[in-house]
Write a structure and sequence with these properties.
It is built from 19 helices and no strands. The chain is an all-alpha fold. It has a single domain, classed as Hydantoin permease (Orthogonal Bundle), CATH 1.10.4160.10. α1 crosses α7 and α4 packs antiparallel against α5. It is globular and about 65 Å long.
């Protein structure tokens, strides 16, 4: 008789309550926030047309992949990291789970820090504290702690509270982004923004911008099933996440691009460190209300981040349920949010984080999608997901082929990122995923024949 390895929670049809609007709001909220705005400001260094092309290209590719991963969750009822047990092995799935916990805590910390900058500006206006841009530590530290408390409130009831915060947050997001758009185009014309070019020393290539966006977008793929398994209909689980995530991305990243270029035109200098929403909102004269909305939209995005991190944590042990995991990752994320204070600028910490996300996630995603759609033909035996010596146990719980393919992918990404002909044109992330997928598929089929 097979022993069980950990536990998984399968969502059945009776538990699937999320409709199209719930899924749409969740995925708009995931991207319609200050982190996406900041990404837009960073890739503005490529100029309007190059950054726009990179944004649309990376968004469409990434969120088609998101839809595929969402389909896996809908068909099986399993969370994202539990699904990797079939491809990496029951023990091998700890690798993508560790990556997911770390990266979503990292994303939470990044969004928290950006929102805390807004709070530091508010505290400056009310109490005279120095802002983060003025190298003040008290205001930004208080801001991080306030965001930590808001996050604890947002995840207090698990999936139900995340669903509620997304429904409320999406309304504020829409109001804010319309307001921001009007203010930007009152200050500068579209023609000025379209013709602006950054200095060569800070200019990004198309490939560089594509890699930055790929790292940002693909992070959501590893959380897709955590939400799609609660969807009541197939289209709500697949098409709706694609549409919601794409709308949130394009809307807020374009605002980030436009606002950052508008600020550069006004100041006659482009500084990517000024790309955060709080700095731009202050320079555009949007006032305290705008800063408060930035804080709220950060909370909606981080509700999704924390749910993904908590879900990944439950894949390690049966002793922790989802609500407990959410509290653990929220507290850790609040502590991690202080790390950027030890870097010269937040941008330095953020770009290093993005490089690591792109390198580790791309090969992982390529493997678990290839396994489900091409190798196993969309047929997983759910009963084997917890069985020691079952079909997903492989070699002592680890699929060596998946592990080696993943390690190869890391090496390929590193090599591609060092080659200008690839790095500057098509970027390293998507080609690495293609190579990893082909290698994993070929070796797995050869091994099956043997």
């Amino acid at each position: 008789m097979n022993k069980n390895f950990g536990k998984i929670t399968v969502i059945n049809d009776n538990q699937r309550k999320m409709n199209h609007w719930d899924m749409f709001a969740t995925w708009i909220g995931a991207n319609a926030n200050n982190g996406t705005w900041y990404i837009g400001g960073v890739i503005a260094a490529a100029g309007l047309w190059t950054s726009s092309l990179a944004l649309v290209t990376a968004g469409i590719i990434s969120y088609i992949i998101l839809g595929l991963a969402s389909y896996m969750g809908f068909k099986t009822g399993l969370p994202a990291m539990a699904l990797t047990r079939a491809s990496f092995g029951l023990r091998g799935s700890f690798i993508p789970s560790i990556i997911n916990v770390i990266q979503f805590i990292g994303w939470t910390a990044a969004n928290t820090f950006i929102a805390a900058i807004s709070i530091s500006v508010i505290l400056h206006d009310i109490f005279g504290f120095k802002t983060y841009q003025q190298h003040g530590l008290l205001g930004i530290s208080i801001g991080i702690l306030i965001m930590g408390l808001l996050h604890l409130c947002s995840i207090s009831l698990g999936q139900r509270s995340v669903q509620l915060i997304e429904r409320i947050g999406i309304i504020l997001v829409i109001i804010f982004v319309i307001w921001e758009s009007i203010v930007v185009f009152k200050q500068v014309s579209f023609a000025q923004i379209a013709n602006w070019q950054p200095k060569v020393v800070v200019k990004l290539s198309f490939g560089n911008a594509l890699d930055i966006l790929a790292a940002f977008n693909l992070a959501w793929v590893t959380a897709a099933a955590d939400f799609s398994r609660f969807a009541a209909k197939k289209t709500a689980a697949t098409v709706t996440p694609f549409l919601g995530a794409s709308l949130g991305l394009f809307w807020f990243a374009f605002i980030g691009i436009f606002a950052t270029i508008a600020t550069a035109l006004s100041l006659n200098v482009y500084d990517p460190n000024n790309s955060d929403p709080s700095t731009i909102a202050s320079k555009l004269g949007l006032g305290v209300i705008a800063l408060i909305v930035i804080v709220i939209t950060s909370t909606t995005a981080n509700a999704v981040n924390l749910m993904a991190a908590g879900s990944a944590l439950t894949n390690f042990t049966k002793k922790i349920n989802l609500n407990q995991a959410l509290w653990i990752v929220t507290i850790i994320a609040t502590i991690v949010s202080f790390i950027p204070l030890f870097f010269a600028t937040f941008l330095d910490a953020f770009t290093q984080f993005l490089d690591l996300v792109g390198m580790f996630l791309g090969p992982e995603i390529a493997i678990f999608l290839t396994d489900y759609f091409l190798l196993k033909n969309q047929k997983y035996d759910i009963s084997a997901f917890t069985k020691i010596a079952g079909q997903y146990w492989y070699d002592k719980g680890v699929n060596i082929i998946a592990l080696l393919s993943w390690l190869l992918g890391l090496g390929v990404f590193f090599i591609f990122s060092m080659l200008p002909i690839i790095k500057d044109t098509i970027g390293a992330t998507f080609p690495t995923m293609l190579v990893t997928s082909i290698v994993y598929l070929i070796i797995s089929k050869i091994n099956t024949k043997d």
